[in-house]
Write a structure and sequence with these properties.
There is one protein chain. It contains 15 helices and 21 strands. The chain is of the alpha+beta class. It has 3 domains: 212 residues, FAD/NAD(P)-binding domain; 148 residues, no CATH class; 67 residues, no CATH class. The strands form 5 sheets. A 7-stranded mixed β-sheet has the order 5-4-14-15-16-13-17. The radius of gyration is 23 Å and the shape is globular. The relative contact order is 0.18. It binds flavin-adenine dinucleotide (FAD). Flavin-adenine dinucleotide (FAD) binds next to helix 1, strand 2, strand 13 and helix 9.
Amino acid sequence: MKNRIGKLVIVGGGTAGWMSAAMLKRVLADQIEVELVESDAIGIIGVGEATIPPIQLFNSVLGLDEAEFLRETKASIKLAIKFENWRVQGESYYHTFGAPGRSQAFCHFHHFWIRAQQAGHTSNLWDYDLNYLCAEAGKFAKLQVNDPVWEMQYAYQFDASLYGQYLRRYSESLGVKRTEGLINQVNVNSESGDITSVVLKSGATVAGDLFIDCSGGRGLLINQELKTGYEDWGHWLPCDRAMAIPSERFETTVPYTRSIAHSAGWQWRIPLQHRNGNGLVYSSSHYSDDEAADILLGNLESPTLADPKIIPFRTGRAKKQWNRNVVAVGLSSGFLEPLESTSIHLIQSAIVRLITLFPHAGVTPELVDEYNRQSKFEFEYIRDFIIMHYYLNERDDSQFWRDVRNMNVPERITQKINLFRANGTLTKDNFDIFLESSWLQVMLGQGITPRDYHPLAGKLTVEQLLDKLAKTKETKLQPMANMPGHDEFLALYCETR
Ligand SMILES: Cc1cc2nc3c(=O)[nH]c(=O)nc-3n(C[C@H](O)[C@H](O)[C@H](O)COP(=O)(O)OP(=O)(O)OC[C@H]3O[C@@H](n4cnc5c(N)ncnc54)[C@H](O)[C@@H]3O)c2cc1C
């Protein structure tokens, strides 16, 4: 039997560090000692505010009270992302966490809608999606549903620094030890190549059996020490820089994130309870930082609350996200631009994967290989989904959009597009976090129209078909009648529970 893993050292106290500390300590409890080292002098990246629905599961396994979480992190509800100017300027579509209509047997609802379109009935597919209807109306309630047709999946938009502090308090209450200090040396066992300890500027040494590298983009252990190597995806996702700035909140907080395409990148707007998070993701080959600042500051619509912060990044992933006795979690493991708000989810799934494959009896090649296999798929599938937004554009106002439209994309993307274009078929891959309805909404929103539909949709007369659509819309609208506005929900829910 190899040595048991008794002591875990987490390097870094950003979102990745504190999420890892909280969950690993919660699940492994007294089986393991956890120490987290972070440097106040370096600080955290401070962005990362929009999430996707599985974060609810993460918080609930931690046992967090949702109302307290919303209060502590100044969070808002997220039902969707609104993509503006992505296909062509002046047009927009939503990628919601819901799904249109109701599937019948093996036939997705959109096939009935396609058939109706072909019969000359023009309606918006999103009108059959409760998430969209509530997002547009600025409404939200936690529905107690007994029929999946009214299920409304949601996520949160929160203040990243406040979430980290909240999880720090939680972790420390479970017994996680926090050590502040700058790591300036890493000790390695000369025989095994494993990391044995990190040394702080103060001279203090923190030793451990397993190290979680949450040190951000620098990848202190996985990259700088172990030289794991990095797979660069900049040729598919040419944006390599972001500029972030908070601004004052608007009178009303909408329950969705906005993604507004510009001539060489896109702008996010994330409404929180106390402010808006804003930023521009751009290609430095097309915009100078001054041009980026002009675009961002010219499109805020509320006064700024700080100076703009420039964040360079490199899209791609560590070739091995688990190498020797180091597991990279968060930005040290790789980065995909925040177009679909997936980075915090990648932190979550890395932690869950590590817990599932936890090396109680010691690190083995089998555990490491399986971990790396799964995380490779997951990163690549998210990458493909993001690439598709760029690839399927019809904008003609800049070389940037022409270039991304004409690039050679991974084959999986063209296969999915071709299948959908032929007869509306959608497929689901293992490890792809995006369900069929996500691919559907983005393909349709970006202008792919299926030529044909499933034969089941052809069995109805046109009259029956239109009746089905009208009844579906009526059903979807039902829960909205007594639903409060999003701000009203937040005020009531956060204060009365
Ligand atoms: C522009 C942009 C927008 C984003 N938006 C989203 C979004 O909307 N949704 C989403 O899910 N994700 C988003 N992300 C990603 C998200 O910000 C990160 O996944 C998340 O913040 C995790 O960061 P981290 O903890 O890995 O790194 P960091 O926050 O950088 O933390 C690194 C930690 O390591 C410590 N450290 C580093 N070096 C040392 C050292 N030598 N000694 C001691 N400590 C050290 C630092 O002090 C810090 O505590 C965005 C990222 C960017 C760049």
